[in-house]
Design brief:
single chain, 366 residues, mainly alpha, hpI Integrase, Chain A, 6% strand, DNA recombination, DNA binding, DNA integration
Length: 366
């Protein structure tokens, strides 16, 4: 156990239920989270003979290797093409080995679980945090592209637009991911900045010609604040997102609602880990859709599978630079301290910066 417990759970099962209940209003998320937690719990008990709360870093490394080929297959992998229900004797946790992207998503979800259990005082530490640190020191086999081309960005948008909206849950999920991708790309934000922002951080001001402009105040890296221009197009996306979630009208100065709301409660911020999971879900879905519609684009699908939230920020900067936008505008919008060979004290005029993004940085939703 960790410090002072903030949940009443006395067993791992009770702790998992306390974690999962937060996502009960988002069936897709709830099902994905329960699946990954259940898989790990079964593996811990059957293969390692350990409680979930007793797993070590070495156990997690072994589990990640296990996901590449769950063995013995008769215990872990469903036979044939049938998908028996969970209560059936033929049910198994896996349909086969997990792809790299699916393994990465599983680790993200489990990291979210263990981080929350630490915060709740149920566990003393999160072994997966050590795993993340270790991976950052590892050298990649080859340099990879870290941004999306305009065509790749279009494929992602096409996938989001193809999502169903037959129920209120589906409608809100679609609106959430559309706004998530819109603000990460359109505002060139870091996820860490987005998940702590509020609707009250959006404000209006008039430029020198008395034209209304919308801005977002962001608490960024290095404990510094900056203003991010919200183009008319991006502000329209915010209005769309607000309306689907029952927030009518313009953002208000004292409005407490998060800029990115939790699926379970509109007064709670979406967690950083969940935001990352949503981004990976969309990139994986985009890759799968691309493979189905354009089998000859396998290499492009693999790029989408490897993409992450930070790629959207890099994509925004790259696309602005391709348009010939002043590097000082890009620097100030992304919140960089400096640019190569450019004095850090050279700042572009705010009106000019807002107009430049209005003219050159389009989301491109059809």
């Amino acid at each position: 156990m960790g410090g002072r417990a903030q949940i009443e759970a006395q067993t791992d099962i009770e702790a998992l239920r306390a974690w999962l209940v937060r996502y009960i209003d988002s069936p897709r998320t709830y099902a994905n989270y329960r699946k990954e937690a259940e898989r790990l719990l079964l593996w811990a008990v059957l293969e390692r003979r350990k409680d979930l709360s007793s797993l070590s870093l070495e156990d997690f490394l072994a589990y990640r290797l296990f996901l590449t080929d769950p063995q013995p297959a008769q215990r872990w992998v469903v036979q044939g093409r049938s998908r028996p229900p969970r209560h059936h004797a033929a049910w198994r946790p896996f349909a086969g080995p997990l792809s790299e992207s699916s393994r990465n998503q599983a680790v993200l979800i489990l990291n979210s679980l263990f981080s929350w259990l630490v915060q709740a005082g149920y566990l003393a530490g999160n072994p997966l945090a050590l795993s993340h640190q270790g991976r950052r020191t590892r050298k990649s086999a080859a340099p990879q592209q870290r941004y999306l081309s305009r065509q790749q960005w279009r494929w992602v948008q096409d996938y989001i637009q193809s999502l169903p909206e037959d129920s209120q849950t589906e409608l809100r999920y679609k609106a959430r991911v559309r706004w998530l991708f819109s603000i990460l790309y359109g505002g060139a934000l870091r996820i860490s900045e987005l998940v702590q922002a509020r609707m009250a951080d959006v404000h209006e001001r008039a430029d020198a010609g008395a034209t209304a402009q919308w801005w977002l105040h962001i608490h960024g890296k290095g404990d510094k604040w900056r203003r991010v221009p919200l183009t008319q197009e991006l502000f329209s996306e915010l209005r769309r997102y607000r309306e689907v979630h029952g927030l009518n009208g313009l953002p208000q100065a004292l409005e407490p609602s998060p800029l990115l709301m939790s699926a379970g409660a509109s007064d709670k911020h979406l967690s950083r880990a969940m935001a990352h999971v949503l981004v990976k879900q969309v990139f994986q879905g985009s890759a799968d859709r691309l493979r189905t519609l354009h089998p000859d684009q396998e290499s492009q699908a693999r790029v989408l599978e490897h993409a992450s939230a930070h790629w959207l920020r890099h994509s925004a900067g790259s696309h602005l630079a391709d348009q010939g936008v002043d590097l000082r505008i890009i620097r100030d919008t992304l919140g960089h301290e400096s640019i190569a060979t450019t004095n850090i004290y050279l700042h572009t005029d705010d009106d000019h910066r807002h107009q430049a993004l209005e003219q050159s940085h389009s989301l491109g939703w059809s």
